[in-house]
Design goal:
The complex is a heterodimer. By secondary structure, chain A is of the alpha/beta class. Chain A has 11 helices and 9 strands. In chain A, helix 5 crosses helix 6 and helix 9 crosses helix 10. The two termini of chain A are 25 Å apart. By secondary structure, chain B is mostly helical. Chain B has a single domain, classed as Orthogonal Bundle (ABC transporter involved in vitamin B12 uptake, BtuC). The longest helix of chain B is centred in the middle third of the chain and has 30 residues. The chains are: A alpha/beta, B mainly alpha. The interface between A and B is medium-sized, with 33 and 30 residues.
């Protein structure tokens, strides 16, 4: 079961207005993977996640999610989008935000049941945000909001978690706590983490892929300098600053 | 006068519920477009000799669906689509009225509203529309919340976001029709935004916000009605002026409270 394939991308191309965002991407994500995808801004990281979720349709290539189409099976994926996308002044409580994650299990006209509420409270407990359940979402700090959004993704009991730049706007001590939280979750689901912050990501993930329109991934955490060069297209500085050597070899 | 009071309350209920979505989902502009396009229906009613409000009901729902459908299914920018529907709807109304035989004497009451002239037949229509709006919001509350707060996540968890969005636009169209007699087409957007904007300053709970904005709407409309009677002014415009002034008062009050007890205070 551990090497059961959850996601498979075969020769996937995505174009926006004739500009290629993803070029011939092949990727396989297995059940026990904790994968970090790094790469520069504008390199197609968010697009890749949206392709997996069926939110962006590839120009060509094949995407398989749990053996089916993304549209059919994305309900098994917990998605945490970039933090700043919602209106922080929106009149909604933390508990209501998390309950939204149960939408697919409830249907169009039914109300959320006691079981849904229990699941939401449990998810809030997992991310240690239970004490904030009645707060308005905008009153929380960036790191706290991020935890709530993870709870929202967890509440539907997904088989995998997709996180898009989850530490944006989160201060350093909170970031560490945040990665520890993920490290705790990785035993119960596959996790894919997208970030431009190479050093932080590489400490916690088990495998690293580099994405700059093309994807460089060999199913391990070893990232050779030639790959980073190809990814970032500015070899010297990126290697000097972004990639501590311990990340490459010692893990 | 009793009809006027009933019309005011019915209008406040519709705009209290739907205005909340207009404000929190930030769809004020498309609501303005739907409101103004309804004039085409009023004009068509004059031309056909049928109750203009009834014709406007179908015309407004159709133009709301048109706006929603075209802006979602084409690559045209949404505000462009709204602008086109807005202007074409009004222009159709003007043409239809021009083609109508006779003198369209009460045209002004549709454009600027006259709560004192609401006939009982329109009151019954308003009551039915209020019931439809309340029922649909009750049934789809969860879905409307999902698409208002985070539409993309709604897609991922399997909410039928396009259906929900088009349904919400239809409810806005119904609300517009309810409001036409009270404040008029030109001023509908005021009642769709101001009561909800006032309510938003005092609660972070969407349901309470609906209740509060309905009450606020009733106060606005009754104050407007009373003032317009006392000062012999147009009732629709007076209601909007009252709403604007009371919004400023509530905003100032909220700011004062916030200074003493900051809203962003840590838990």
């Amino acid at each position: 079961m551990a090497d059961e394939e959850l996601i498979r991308l075969e020769d996937v191309w995505v174009h926006y207005d004739n500009v290629a965002i993803l070029e011939a991407v092949n990727l396989s994500i297995k059940r026990d993977d904790f994968l970090g995808i790094i790469g520069p801004n504008g390199g197609g990281k968010t697009t890749l996640l949206k392709v997996i979720l069926g939110l962006v349709k590839p120009t060509s290539g094949k995407v398989t999610v749990l053996g089916g189409t993304p549209q059919r099976n994305r309900k098994f994926i917990g998605y945490v989008a970039q933090n700043s996308l919602f209106d922080h002044d929106f009149p909604i409580s933390v508990l209501e935000v998390v309950l939204m994650g149960r939408y697919g299990k409830v249907g169009l006209v039914k109300r959320f049941s006691e079981d849904d509420k229990k699941a939401a409270l449990k998810a809030l407990q997992t991310v240690e945000m239970i004490n904030y359940k009645d707060k308005q979402i905008g009153r929380l700090s960036g790191g706290e909001q991020q935890r709530v959004l993870i709870a929202r993704a967890l509440v539907a009991e997904p088989k995998m978690l997709l996180l898009d730049e989850p530490t944006t706007g989160v201060d350093m001590p909170m970031q560490t706590e945040f990665y520890e939280l993920l490290a705790g979750l990785k035993y119960s689901m596959s996790i894919v983490l997208v970030s431009h912050d190479i050093s932080a990501v590489s400490i916690y993930v088990d495998k690293i892929a580099c994405l700059n329109h093309q994807l460089y991934y060999h199913g391990s955490k070893e990232v050779g300098p030639e790959v980073l060069e190809a990814t970032y297209k500015c070899p010297v500085q990126m290697i000097a600053h972004g990639i501590p050597h311990r990340v490459l070899k010692e893990h | 006068m009793r009809n006027a009071l009933a019309a005011g309350v019915l209008a406040a209920i519709a705009c209290g519920i739907i205005g909340v979505y207009v404000v929190v989902k930030k769809i004020v502009f498309i609501s303005g477009g739907i409101a103004h396009a309804s004039f085409g229906g009023i004009g068509l009613g004059f031309l056909l000799g049928i109750n203009p409000v009834l014709v406007a009901l179908f015309f407004t729902v159709a133009s709301a669906l048109g706006m929603g459908f075209v802006s979602r299914r084409t690559k045209l920018p949404q505000d462009t689509v709204i602008g086109i529907f807005w202007a074409v709807g009004m222009a159709l109304g003007i043409i239809f009225v021009g083609l109508s035989p006779g003198y369209a004497g009460d045209l002004f009451s549709y454009l600027f509203g006259n709560i004192l002239l609401v006939p009982t037949s329109d009151l019954i229509l308003m009551l039915i529309l209020d019931a439809v709006i309340a029922l649909v919001v009750f049934l789809l509350y969860k879905g409307f919340l999902a698409i208002s707060f985070d539409e993309e996540f709604g897609v991922v968890v399997g909410a039928p976001v396009e259906f929900l969005y088009l349904t919400l636009l239809c409810l806005i169209a119904l609300t517009v029709v309810v409001l036409i007699r009270v404040v008029g087409i030109i001023l509908v957007i005021a009642m769709l935004t101001i009561p909800a904007a006032v309510a938003k300053q005092f609660t972070y709970d969407l349901k309470k916000m609906m209740l509060l904005s309905t009450l606020v709407g009733i106060v606005f409309i009754l104050c407007g009605l009373w003032l317009s009677y006392e000062l012999d002014l147009a009732s629709g415009a007076t209601t909007v002026i009252v709403s604007g002034v009371l919004f400023l008062v509530s905003f100032g009050f909220r700011t004062l409270i916030a200074r003493r007890r900051p809203l962003t205070q840590p838990p």
